[in-house]
Amino acid sequence: MSSNTFHVSEGSKNFDFKAGSHNSVIVEANGLAASFHSNSLRYKELFVTAKGSIDVSISSMSVAVELGIVE
Predict the structure, then answer these.
(1) Fewer beta carbons under 10 A from the terminal one: N or C of the chain?
(2) Global pTM?
């Protein structure tokens, strides 16, 4: 795929911070809305090839990130 875009369209109002392992913190964001678009999609299965574009809407998504300090 080429010409891809990913856009978070609605920010989260529900953040959670908790302690991780070994000098780290885990940040979670729940209830995000996002969209994905690709202008150039090519999918091949056996002898059939599909070409086109794709638009995807995500109504509820969660993301967790662990941030750590390395000494």
Answers:
(1) C
(2) 0.59
Residue 54 has pLDDT above 50, yes or no: yes
CA distance 71 to 51: 49
CA–CA dist 33, 31 (Å, integer) = 7
Q: Which two tokens stand for residue 52?
A: 């086109």
Q: Are 2 and 31 in contact (CB under 8 A)?
A: no
Sign of CA dihedral 44, 48, 51, 55: negative
Which residue is associated with the tokens 């994905």?
36
Q: What gap in Å lies between CA 34 and CA 39, rounded to an integer? A: 17
Structural domains in the chain (count): 1
pLDDT tens digits, one per residue of 16-44: 999 988 889 999 998 889 999 988 888 88
Decide if 28 contacts 2 (C-beta within 8 A): no
